[in-house]
Amino acid sequence: MADQKVTQTVGRRWRNGIKAVAVVSALGFVATACSGSSGPPTLTWYINPDDGGQAAIAQKCSEQANGAYTIETSLLPNDAASQREQLARRLAAGDSSMDIMSLDPPYIPELAEPGFLAPVPDDIAQSSTQDVVQGAIDGATWKGELVTVPFWANTQILWYRKSVAEAAGLDMTQPVTWDQLIEAARSQDKYLGVQGARAESMTVWLNALIASGGGEIVVNPEASAEELQLGLDSPQGEKAAEIISTIGTEGLGGPGLPTMDENASMELFQGDQGSFMVNYNFVWPAMQSAVEEGSLDQSVVDDIGWAVFPRVDADTEAAPPLGGINLGVGADSDHVDLAYEAISCIVQPENQTEYFVTNGNAPAVRSAFDDPSVAQDFPMATTIRESLDIAAPRPQTPYYNEVSTGIQQTWTPPSAVDPASTPASSQQFITEVLRGERLL
C-alpha cells in the first residue's frame, strides 16, 4: 500500500516548495499536541484506518504510562497516497504535533532523506528489532540505519480451493509455480484471484514476481534520480510480464481484472469460478464474518486451503510481498523521548498479538505468533510467519512514488502487457521521468 516525489531536480524543488506550501497549509489544519498545563503531555499518534486496534493500544499504553503521557490518535486518510501527502506536508512544515506516525514502509526513505524523522535511540533500535522478521527490519531501514520501528507486518499468501487443486492434480503440500496455477485455471475453467487495477497493488504484484525470479525493480535504491538504475528490462521482468499478460489476455483473472483490487479478488475467489488467489490475511476474518452474516456458505470456507506465495521458477524460493506499518517520530516533535517511550509500549509482543487477533494485521515479531489465540483465529498463522521470513519489501528509494506510479501507468491493464516490449518501454519511461525529461 504506497507513493512519492519526481526527479532529483524536481525532487529538490518539491522539498523546497512543499515547505512553503506546507507552512501555509499547516496554519489551517495542524493538530496541536499540547495539553493543559496541569496534565501530562499529550502525544498525537497519526494512524492509518483500522478496526479500532491502534486506538485501543493507545489507551492501554496511556494507562500504563502512569501519568508520564497520554496518547491521542488522529486518523489519516484511507488511501496510502493521501496519507503520504498529508504526513509529508506536515513534517516539512515543522509540525510539532507529529509525535508518532504509522508509516507505510515504501514512503519511509522519502521522509528520512530530508531529516523529517527523529533518530531512533540505540536502546529502542536494539529492543524493537529482537526476534522481528527481517523483511520488517529492511522496510524500517534507510542507508543502513533503523529510522522507524517495526509495528506490524503484512504479506500475501496463496489461498486455494481444495476441490479445484485436487481436480487439477496439484500437490499443495509442495511449492507451486505461477505456470502451474495458470494451467490449472485453464484446465478447470476457473479464475485466478489477482489484483490488476491501476493502483499500488500492481506495483506490489510486479515487485513480488520480479523478486521471486531473483531480480529487483531498483538496482541501486540509494542513488540520485539521475543515477537510479532499474531492473525492469531484464529476464525477470520479461517473465513477470509473461505471467501478467497471460492472465490478462486469456481472461484468467475474470472480466473485472483491469479494476480488481484486493476486495474484488476475494469476492471472485469466493464465487463458483474461484480457484487460486494471492491476497493478504484480512480475507480470513472477512470470510468468517460473511458466513456469520449469511452472505457466504460455510462449505466455501471449508474448501479453502493456504500455502506460501507461488514461485516464478520451480527451483527458486518465492519472495512474497511485504507490507505492514512502521512507527516513526517527527524530528520537530516537542516530545521525541516520550514518543519513543510510547512506541516501546505499542510494539510489545502482547500488543502485536492482540492487534492481530482483533484487527487481522500480522505481528512483526515472531514470538507473537505463538499465542494460542492466534492459532485459533488464524489457522494459517504458521504459513503467514513463514511467508514473512522470506518476503521482499518494495524498492526502498526516495523516488518510490515516481517508480510506482510509472509502473502503474505502463503495466496496466494486464491484457495490454507485452513481454517483448513492456519491460523495456516501462523502464525507459520511468527513467525519463526521474531525469525530468517526461511527466507522470
What's the quaternary structure here? single chain
Report strand %.
5-15%
Helix and strand element order: HEHEHEHHHEEEHHEHHHEHHEEHHHHHH
Low-confidence parts, pLDDT < 50 over ≥5 residues?
1-36
Q: Radius of gyration in whole Å, from Cα?
A: 22 Å
Helix-strand category: alpha/beta
Number of strands: 10
End-to-end separation in angstroms reads 19 Å
Task: Describe the 3D structure.
This protein has 440 residues and is an alpha/beta fold. 45% of the residues lie in helices and 12% in strands. The chain has 19 helices and ten strands. The chain has helices at 8-29, 53-64, 80-92, 108-112, 122-127, 134-139, 162-167, 178-188, 200-212, 235-249, 262-270, 283-293, 298-302, 336-346, 349-359, 372-377, 381-390, 400-410, 422-434, and strands at residues 42-47, 70-75, 100-103, 141-142, 145-146, 149-161, 191-193, 274-280, 304-307, 322-328. The strands form two sheets. Strands 1, 2, 3, 6, 7, 8, 9 and 10 form an eight-stranded mixed beta sheet that branches. α1 packs across α3, α9 crosses α10 and α18 packs antiparallel against α19. The longest helix has 22 residues, at 8-29. It is globular, with a radius of gyration of 22 Å. It starts with 7 loop residues before the first helix and ends in a 6-residue tail after the last helix.
